[in-house]
Specification:
420 residues, alpha+beta, two-stranded antiparallel sheet, 12 helices, 9 strands, 47% helix
Length: 420
């Protein structure tokens, strides 16, 4: 509303959405269940099987057709409407039947193929295919089968253990796997407890979100998704057409996650306010330097870059939310296990132990690659570009909430990584 007064002054009235006031109550003593962290013999056997898989070799199969789980070596040429497509061909492509590594619906049409067969495989080009005119359209791949191979696993004995780890015997290797699985399960249990207290807090807190806040966050999420598409040289509108998804449908898919995430953020902010939880910029900067130093980077250089981008306040805000989660966990009634606070300010990485447990095997695997001792029949997988597919629209819309426990620490890590 606009009003002009006699003294020539102008008075106007504007309506704007403001951040809602949130009142949290009964947030101490939240009841949550802690997952079972026992390590079963099956857990250990699966891990040992994975170790064998990493060092498997491929052997040529004679006298039988290909079946699911086999590997096929082939040449191909793609046709669209009967016309060969320039650049859409390949030689000595190796895929695993049933893995779906190449194109959706491609490999299952090769079940029953024999060496020397020429097979026409009919599929659709992916919506994110690099040639815009072909994206989402049907195509015929003329395939010449050159070899059929099967995976052969090495026996898990002391000899293999010495090659792939620092241990001497199978029993030692098995105990190490059990210990690492136990550590990973403990960390997963702590994350689940932390997420559970946040979910419980949101469920018991009334929050009236302004539609403008929700819409703004949805737009931001979709823009981030679109940017991933554009990074592959694909126009986002063309991608939506090929995927047969409208912008409105995307917004509907993203909305539940966004609403839940915003409510979690506001509820945690209210807990932090109620308990006077504070984080200074100095604390945030110290956290950044510690993380960068631990990763082998230049702390001062990275910190300066983060300052230049103006991202310190965001890290402060996320650290404050993380401390609010710490408070909730410390004051929760945790059933089924020992109560313990999870990682604060992202100081514990969910992937640290996983990376540690894989390092030895990776080093051994690389050593074999360099020395040439491992068979050259190893898998050389060929897949479509790692651009988000139509299914990933839905997957992205159902990923962790923007204010989930994982996202809070992850956002801080992302900012330090980008600065590096």
């Amino acid at each position: 509303m606009l009003e002009t007064r006699d003294d020539r002054s102008v008075v106007f009235e504007a309506k704007v959405d403001v951040k809602p006031d949130v009142a949290v109550k009964d947030y101490k003593g939240i009841k949550v269940d802690r997952p079972d962290t026992d390590v079963s013999d099956d857990d250990v056997e699966r891990a040992m099987q994975q170790a064998r898989e990493r060092f498997a070799t491929l052997e040529v199969v004679e006298g039988r057709p290909a079946s699911e789980g086999d590997y096929l070596l082939f040449d191909y040429k793609a046709f669209a409407e009967g016309i060969p497509e320039e650049g859409a061909s390949g030689s000595d492509v190796l895929i695993e039947i049933g893995a779906g590594d190449f194109l959706p619906g491609f490999d299952n049409q090769l079940v029953g193929a024999r060496k020397g067969d020429i097979i026409d495989v009919v599929v659709n080009f992916p919506p994110d295919y690099g040639v815009r005119e072909l994206a989402g359209k049907p195509a015929t791949f003329r395939v010449i089968v050159k070899e059929i191979k099967t995976k052969v696993l090495p026996p898990l004995d002391d000899k293999l253990v010495k090659e792939i780890s620092i241990f001497e015997t199978v029993d030692q290797f098995k105990q190490d796997l059990r210990d690492k699985i136990s550590q990973l399960k403990e960390m997963a249990a702590e994350r689940e407890v932390r997420q559970s207290v946040v979910d419980a807090l949101v469920d018991k807190t009334y929050i009236d979100l302004p539609e403008s806040m929700v819409k703004r966050e949805i737009d931001r999420e979709i823009e981030e998704f679109a940017e991933k598409i554009r990074e592959r040289g694909i126009d986002f509108e063309d991608y939506l057409k090929a995927a047969k998804v409208t912008r409105y449908e995307m917004e509907k898919m993203f909305r539940p996650k966004i609403i839940k995430g915003l409510k979690a953020e506001l509820a945690l902010e209210a807990v932090a306010d109620a308990e006077n939880i504070q984080v200074s910029e100095e604390e945030a900067e110290e956290y950044i330097k510690e993380r960068v130093a631990a990763a082998g980077g230049d702390p001062e250089k990275v910190l300066e870059e983060i300052r230049r981008r103006g991202e310190i306040p965001m890290i402060v805000a996320n650290m404050r939310l993380s401390r609010a989660v710490d408070f909730l966990v410390e004051n929760a009634e945790i059933r089924g296990g020992v109560s313990a606070t999870g990682p604060s300010e992202g100081e514990k990485e969910s992937g640290d132990l996983r990376r540690e447990s894989e390092t030895e095997m990776n080093q051994s695997e690389n050593a074999q690659d360099d020395s040439g001792e491992e068979s050259d029949e190893t898998k050389d997988s060929v897949s479509a570009e790692e651009t988000p597919t139509p299914q990933e629209i839905e997957r992205a819309a159902s990923m962790e909430d923007p204010s989930s426990v994982e996202s809070i620490s992850g956002e801080m890590e992302n900012k330090t990584e980008r600065a590096e």
